[in-house]
Amino acid sequence: MLVDGKWTSDWQPVQKADEKGRFVRQVSSFRNWITPDGSAGPTGEGGFKAEAGRYRLYVALICPWASRTLIARKLKGLEDLIPVTVVNPVLSDQGWQFGGYDGADADPLFDATYMHELYTRADVSFTGRATVPVLWDMQQGIMVNNESADILRMFDTAFEGLVPSDLRLYPQDLAAEIDALNAVIYDRLNNGVYKAGFASSQEAYDEAVAGVFDTLVMLEDRLTGDYLFGDRLTETDIRAFVTLIRFDAAYHGLFKTNLRQIADYPRLSAYMRRILDLPGVRETVNMDHITRGYYSIKALNPTGIRPVGPDHVTRALH
Ligand SMILES: N[C@@H](CCC(=O)N[C@@H](CS)C(=O)NCC(=O)O)C(=O)O
């Protein structure tokens, strides 16, 4: 990670743990919002007006948080407005790096080698992990935001004047319910699998795994319609999907969330395929990057050997 703008050599892929060995995810630090007229959003500063070609999104295709922004970009028809740069799926000893892998891009803006170089360009004395996704303002040369939940939400509304869309991922009449369900899904499922995988005590692992499977059962029971809010696709579906699609291929084995697979839940399986079949979504899922990335986390898999299966995941993607 970066400390006062300098890369520290004791970088570890395992993030912080609390006193009970529970994994603790870093809080994002760049929280500005793109808005239709450049006025300030809910957090951060103003000055980020929605304009075609002004902003670039940096992602890792292994990363569920980055993937949710990529999916929103597709569903809202923003591909021509917001270009994307994909990093190498393998976290190096200096974090995310550019190029060097099939489907990974060079950095088109600064020809940077590592993602952390963008963080120190944005803030010379930045302290923290150089995470993806990153939304970069190419006009001002600054980082707009590195929190996927914000990026997902600004993609829903900020560009409406440039690319009108009937789809509303965060409709006001469902806002409170979406926030409530997001909180459960985030804590117990999205981050729950990481809490299981990076637990450093049996107690922390047991607690995390229970949360993961309780949440899967809750979602399976809830899915009587096409989506989590009946027939309306919302950001909550995107947030659930990114974990479901990685589950059987990565989390089940590597993170030891192995009580069941998603394939064992009929409604969740059908739901996952339904979202995968939405226009553009399949293109955001790169199973090669996902398995290469996760299974190269040395702390969890020192040999780097990738399992061959499961077969049903590969079939679902084609
Ligand atoms: N709060 C962030 C979390 C993003 C995050 O943790 N990204 C991971 C990849 S999935 C990352 O970049 N990790 C690199 C590191 O920790 O050094 C968000 O949702 O945008």
TrEMBL record:
Family matches, as SUPFAM superfamilies: GST C-terminal domain-like, Thioredoxin-like
Active site, renumbered: C63, Y194
Site (described: Lowers pKa of active site Cys): Y251, Y294
Top-level taxon of origin: Bacteria
Domain GST C-terminal: residue ranges: 171-311
Residues involved in glutathione binding: W96, R129, A130, T131, V132, E147, S148
UniProt GO molecular function: glutathione transferase activity
UniProt KW keywords: Transferase
Protein name as catalogued: Putative Glutathione S-transferase
Upper taxonomic lineage: Bacteria, Pseudomonadati, Pseudomonadota, Alphaproteobacteria, Rhodobacterales
